[in-house]
Amino acid sequence: MKDLTRGKVFLIGAGPGDPDLLTVKALKAMQAADVVVYDRLVSPEIMALVPDRVERIDVGKMPKRHKVPQEQINDILVKLALQGQQVVRLKGGDPLIFGRGSEEAEELRRAGVAYEYVPGITSAQGAAASTGVPLTHRGLASGVRYVTGHRAKDATLDLDWSSLACEDTTLVIYMGAMNIGDISGELMRNGLPAALPVMAIASVTTPREKRLLSTLETIADDVEGAALAAPVLFVVGHVVSLYEAAALPAEVAAYA
Q1: Residues 193, 200: Cα–Cα separation, whole Å
Q2: Residue from 34, 47, 61, 182 carrying the catalytic annotation
Q3: Is 30 assigned a catalytic role?
Q4: Cis amide leading into 44 (omega within 30)
């Protein structure tokens, strides 16, 4: 019988996909877990590190198809912890950057369940390291902003477009593949040049990684033609001009 005083949830960022980028703390928690509750963006390479004895619960969400609603995920975490289980809630990237980790923590706190955050490398950092495109660079970008490209329940993107349309800032757009046409259009209407370079990166840092070079004007058509598999990250800004395909091993799809 489990000791009901020891249940705890670890809200863990699995990073962008490469198992070598997983933190030591995250790996230790995974290896000591009774159960792992994981998202679809956690790579199979990461999941292969979970010991065979550990129970696995898949709660991954797909665009327009959430097989396990967030409220039910919250209930699962609370129930397991109250049973005395050592629970790992495994998320792609970082749990506090578009990972809803704070929402789950709020529910755990209300239920009196102990929890701990374990940070992960977010996809933007993984993309920068993998492609060689920096997020900031002297003379090209003095800042970087992480932006969601998708709203819950497919609500309209009501972002502050005039604020985002700054040529001195690199924009990194998460979860934006379905809305990239609207996003690029709004950015151009608010002043960004049509020729501003854009890179789309799919499955960053994994063996399935693919890259696409485009511009703000053509990115929507190019992404549709390339049929990149999710997850897709977009880097918008002059820093993309530093990309040197010849020096990097991953496949590059270049569009005029």
Answers
A1: 18
A2: 61
A3: no
A4: no
Q: Is 18 one of the annotated active-site residues of the chain?
A: no
Give the Cα separation of 71 and 5 in Å (integer). 24
Report which of 200, 206, 254 is spatially closest to residue 232, judged by C-alpha positions. Answer: 200
Answer whether 0.70 is exceeded by the pTM: yes
**Residue 246 in this model has a pLDDT that exceeds 50:** no
**Helix (H) / strand (E) containing 215:** strand 210-215
Among 175, 199, 210, 222, the one annotated catalytic: 175
Give the model confidence (pLDDT) of 145-183 as tens digits: 999 998 765 667 889 999 999 999 999 999 999 999 999
The dihedral built from the CA positions of residue 88, 89, 91 and 93, taken in this order, carries a sign that is negative
CA distances to 22, 141, 228 from 31, rounded to whole Å, are 13, 40, 33
Single-letter amino acid code for the residue at 4: L
pLDDT at residue 250 tops 90: no
User: Is 39 a residue of the active site?
Assistant: yes
DSSP secondary structure letter of residue 199: E
Q: How far apart are the first and last CA of the chain?
A: 63
What CA–CA distance (Å, rounded) separates 52 from 98?
29
Active-site residue (options: 8, 18, 30, 39): 39
Quote the tokens at residue 67.
């097989």
The CA distance from 113 to 163, in Å, is 39
Reported as a single tens digit per residue, the pLDDT across 110-141 is: 999 999 999 999 999 999 999 999 999 999 99
